[in-house]
Amino acid sequence: MIGMVDLQEAWNLPPVRATWTPDSGTIHSTVLLKTDHGNYALRAYRYSNEKRWKIEGEHAIIAHVQQHGLPAIAPLPLPNGETILNHDGAFYALFPFAPGQQVPRHKLNTGKAIAMGKTLSQLHQALRDYHPQHARTISFDVDREATVAKIDQIEAAILSQPELDALDKQSLQRLAQRRDRLMVSQPEDISILSALDHQVTHGDYQESNLFFEGDSVSAIIDWDQTLFAPRAWEVIRVFHYVFKFQAQGCCAFLDAYSSIMPLPLVDLEKTATIYAWIREHDLWLYEELYLHRNQRVRVFVAPGRFVPLIHRWEELQPALSSL
Question: What stretch or stretches form a coiled coil here (predicted)?
Answer without folding.
Answer: none
